[in-house]
Amino acid sequence: MSEPPVTAVPHPRTIRSFVRRAGRTTLAQAKAFEALGPRFILPYQDRLLDYAAVFGRSAPTVLEIGFGMGEATAHIAGLLPATNFLCCEVHEPGVGALLKRLGERELTHVRILAHDAVEVIDHMLPADSLDGVHVFFPDPWHKKKHNKRRLIQPPLVNRLAQRLRPGGYLHCATDWEPYAQQMLQVLGAEPLLRNTAADFAPKPDYRPLTKFENRGLKLGHGVWDLVFTRR
Predict the structure, then answer these.
(1) Cα 129 to the chain's mean position, in Å?
(2) pLDDT band of 214, cuts 50, 70, 90
(3) CB atoms within 10 A of CB 177
(4) Catalytic residue at 131?
(5) Are 229 and 169 in contact (CB under 8 A)?
(6) Residue 88 CB neighbours (<10 A)
(7) Which whole-number Å values give the CA distances from 156 to 76, 147, 206, in the listed order?
(8) Averaged over 2-11, what is the pLDDT?
(9) Superfamily of structural domain 27-230
């Protein structure tokens, strides 16, 4: 039975889950696209996914939105071989880099959707189907006039909450404190979610420190994790 379209909290068409960044795909990434793309990249489609068919097994499934160059994704997938990872990223060099990592580490339980995550959530993800969602270091849109472009806003959070199983989790992380405070407010206002901490959560063991994050920490920059669960 297909899920009815979500109409209660329409996401503004002007807000997308990504910003196209400049970047050049390397020869190694291009080779990974050619060799591994057909196996790991899923086409966008306007119908609900059957996770068991997509991954070739029934297992807990985690959605990741915006994996950058795939460093954290491959690390977490290596730690959690019994979990399926469905990952959205439109930055072509990043997709190529993750494909390369998957091949090098012989990881077979990751699938990539090189498409806007908002449309993927709306049209491809069944309700109550995800065991987790990862949103690590989304664009903070530092200028106040651009804050409305931030990914973590009430309409999207409600959509994500609806697609989590009861007990499933939403894990966000950012290194920009004003965005962390906004995330805390938005997530805390979603009635389907419950905070696992009094405010910000300790960094879960599965999330690695990236090179960028390590540089920031050495300079005294903070990082804030938020972990909420579906009621």
Answers:
(1) 15
(2) confident
(3) 13
(4) no
(5) yes
(6) 25
(7) 24, 15, 24
(8) 42
(9) Vaccinia Virus protein VP39 (3.40.50.150)
Q: How far apart are CA 130 and CA 47, in angstroms?
A: 16
Return the closest-CA partner of residue 99 out of 43, 34, 23: 34
Q: How far apart are CA 83 and CA 184, in angstroms?
A: 27
Between residues 6 and 85, the one the model is more confident about: 85
What is the rounded average pLDDT of the residues 189-208? Answer: 97
Q: Where are the domains of the chain?
A: 27-230
| Residue 161 tokens, joined | 């909450």
| Neighbouring residues of 204: CB distance < 8 A, sequence distance ≥ 6 | 171, 225, 227
Q: What is the pLDDT of residues 138-177, one digit of tens each?
A: 999 988 888 889 999 999 999 999 999 999 999 999 999 9
28 or 216, higher pLDDT: 28
Output b/e per residue, 107-121; b: 16+ Cβ within 10 A. Answer: bebbbbbbbbbbbbb
Please give the model's pTM, rounded to 2 decimal places.
0.88
Q: Are 195 and 161 in contact (CB under 8 A)?
A: no
pLDDT for 181 beyond 80: yes
Mean pLDDT of 29-44: 94
Burial of 176 from C-beta contacts in 10 A (0-12 / 13-18 / 19+)? buried
Q: Which entry of 50, 139, 199, 205 is annotated as an active-site residue? A: 139
